[in-house]
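Quick one, probably user error.
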């Protein structure tokens, strides 16, 4: 994670694990924007991060996920994150 952060010139970030769950992971808003811009380049990440729900198959079992980002529904008034997707596209274009 730290190696990829260095590649992305995320100079204000340090990760102790790749899950994003540790309170010891730190990053600035600017670095997070760089991360989002890089993630936007991966169609599958872009698709699943802008959906409100998804079910995937892993190890032969269906796994359901729900986007807990309340910003999506609060800002759009509907399921999914179209405004987030538009923002990600604009960030990637700049």
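Nope, works fine. Designed sequence:
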């Amino acid at each position: 994670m730290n190696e990829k952060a260095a590649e992305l010139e995320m100079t204000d970030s340090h990760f102790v694990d790749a899950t994003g769950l540790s309170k010891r992971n730190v990053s600035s808003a600017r670095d997070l924007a760089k991360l989002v811009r890089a993630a936007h380049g991966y169609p599958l990440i872009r698709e699943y991060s802008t959906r409100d729900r998804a079910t995937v198959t892993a190890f032969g079992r269906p796994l359901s996920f729900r986007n807990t980002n309340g910003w999506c529904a609060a800002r759009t008034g509907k399921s999914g994150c179209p405004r987030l997707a538009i923002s990600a596209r604009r960030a990637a274009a700049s």
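Residues 45-94 form one domain.
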